[in-house]
């Protein structure tokens, strides 16, 4: 038997940014009698050039986006023909989310396997605002900052998902800010009405939600002062008066 064959590739599907100091991507393989020219390469996002290369009997090299970010002393095995097959990436950040391909080859044979890893960041400043633009309508605004990958926001009542919701998504310094908003007529709402905003990052299998109670009626003030960010958000959707209510954050697991 002269063929090399990858028997297992271990790439964490989802990791949360900042939770662990390093992550190991492993690529185990079998080999035959002829191991001349045995090389292990890792590629990122199907790029033409590898981000890691280990030629047996030489020192491993990190390149491209992973230059300076791989622990080159890490050993996955004591077998001298498998020793540096794995990637130990230090301080993984969101920019290394994507497909990883391990290629093991000799002068005669080659095998490859690919798996995806997502480095995700939960949202910050997740808020649900109900904002009176006049006595007869309410603007329901859900917003979140600092998430990665891009989050999906949905607005609903306990009975149904709300129609006519507008969405905005911005990428700022590698993190996403999202806004979902809709204007509703008080006459169409029960009293009190409940609104639910759900934030999902599907690729990270992550979801949280906020809930708030709204009482239809004329514009009024509340003792709770809106934050500067809330005021900016309200101004962005053209509101005139405020009716801010306390929201509840609920994790969905």
Describe this structure in words.
With 253 residues, the protein is mainly β. Helices cover 4% and strands 48% of the residues. Strands 2-9-8-4-5-6 form a six-stranded mixed sheet, with no helix packed on it. A four-stranded antiparallel sheet has the order 10-11-14-13, with helices on one face. The longest helix is centred in the C-terminal third of the chain and has 9 residues. The two termini are 48 Å apart. This is Ig-like domain-containing protein. It comes from Parnassius mnemosyne (clouded apollo).
Q: What is the ordering of alpha helices and beta strands?
A: EEEEEEEEEEEEEEEEHE
What is the alpha-carbon Rg in Å?
26 Å
User: What class would the helix/strand composition place it in?
Assistant: mainly beta
First-residue to last-residue Cα separation: 48 Å
Major beta sheet summary: 6 strands, mixed
- Low-pLDDT residue spans: 221-226, 237-253
Please give the structural blueprint.
Elements: E1 5-10, E2 14-16, E3 22-30, E4 39-44, E5 52-55, E6 61-62, E7 87-90, E8 98-105, E9 110-120, E10 124-134, E11 137-147, E12 152-156, E13 166-172, E14 175-185, E15 193-201, E16 206-214, H1 228-236, E17 247-252
Parallel strand pairs: 2-9
Antiparallel strand pairs: 1-3, 3-7, 4-5, 4-8, 5-6, 8-9, 10-11, 11-14, 12-15, 13-14, 15-16, 16-17
InterPro entries: Ig-like_dom_sf, Ig-like_fold
Protein name: Ig-like domain-containing protein
């Amino acid at each position: 038997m002269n063929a090399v064959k990858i028997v297992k590739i271990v790439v964490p599907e989802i990791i949360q940014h900042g939770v662990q100091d390093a992550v190991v991507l492993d690529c185990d393989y079998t080999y035959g009698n002829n191991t001349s020219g045995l090389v292990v390469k890792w590629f990122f996002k199907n790029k033409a050039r590898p981000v890691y290369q280990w030629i047996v009997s030489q020192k491993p090299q990190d390149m491209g986006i992973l230059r300076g970010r791989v622990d080159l002393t890490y050993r996955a095995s004591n077998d001298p023909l498998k020793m540096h097959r794995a990637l130990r990436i230090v301080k993984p950040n969101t920019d290394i989310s994507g497909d990883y391909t391990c290629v093991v080859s000799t002068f005669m044979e080659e095998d490859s396997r690919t798996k995806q890893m997502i480095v995700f960041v939960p949202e910050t400043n997740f808020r649900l605002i109900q904002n009176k633009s006049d006595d007869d309508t309410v603007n329901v605004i859900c917003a979140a900052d600092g998430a990665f990958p891009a989050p999906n926001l949905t607005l609903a009542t306990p009975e149904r998902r709300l129609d006519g919701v507008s969405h905005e998504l911005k990428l700022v310094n590698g993190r996403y800010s999202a806004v979902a908003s809709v204007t509703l007529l008080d006459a169409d709402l029960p009293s009190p009405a409940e609104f639910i905003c759900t934030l999902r990052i599907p690729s990270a299998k992550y979801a949280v939600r906020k809930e708030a109670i709204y009482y239809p009626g004329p514009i009024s003030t509340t003792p709770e002062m809106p934050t500067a960010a809330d005021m900016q958000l309200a101004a962005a959707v053209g509101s005139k008066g405020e009716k801010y209510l306390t929201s509840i954050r609920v994790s969905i697991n």
